[in-house]
Design goal:
about 190 residues; alpha+beta; 8 helices; about 55% helix; globular; binds zinc ion
């Protein structure tokens, strides 16, 4: 859900700093999520991923940057619980692993007509959703991205934009993918 993939002027605060105004998610839970993100990036040959909080942003916003920072807004911390936040940050982790920030920046310079393409932008969002979903399904866990979507729906994030597909289409995309895991997990849990 990268609203802005590149924003160098934004004030970034590491979660290592104390003084967070977290309501729904504790500092300890943020550290745990940060560790999962780093682990998932490492598995996928990316060793520079870090979770950052933009404490001055009360809107619901998350995005990934070329240098490996996954930035989440204070609004996200205040809105989502730890599992939903994990799902959202795993989606951003998917962008990192797929090297989307770099690709978007490159084609913005060399092929600007493509970076504005709705088809291309939606495709990278679908792929990031599947990355997050795969984390949960491969562990036979509930996919918390659905729970995050429910809250985004309430926050009027449901409509399609040039950069993001509608939530309905994102759900349909995940459902196509989850069928395999539902069968597999039923078998494992027998
Ligand atoms: Zn995204």
């Amino acid at each position: 859900m990268a609203k802005q993939l590149i924003n160098k002027n934004i004030l970034l605060l590491s979660i290592m700093l104390l003084g967070l105004q977290a309501v729904a998610v504790t500092h300890k839970e943020l550290i745990h999520i940060d560790n999962i993100i780093k682990e998932q990036c490492n598995i996928n040959m990316r060793d520079d991923c870090k979770l950052y909080i933009n404490k001055d942003d009360d809107s619901i916003n998350a995005y990934s940057l070329i240098d490996g920072r996954i930035v989440i807004s204070q609004g996200i911390i205040n809105t989502f619980n730890k599992n939903e936040l994990l799902a959202v940050t795993l989606h951003e982790c998917g962008h990192m692993v797929n090297r989307d920030p770099e690709t978007v920046a490159y084609i913005a310079v060399h092929y600007p007509h493509i970076v504005d393409s709705k088809y291309y932008r939606h495709k990278i969002e679908y792929k990031a959703d599947l990355f997050a979903s795969n984390y949960f399904y491969s562990r036979c866990q509930h996919n918390y991205i659905y729970d995050a979507f429910k809250k985004l729906n309430k926050a009027d994030w449901n409509k399609e934009s040039n950069t993001h597909p509608s939530l309905n289409n994102r759900i349909k995309n995940i459902q196509k993918y989850e069928k395999f895991y539902v069968t597999k997990c039923k078998y494992i849990n027998k």
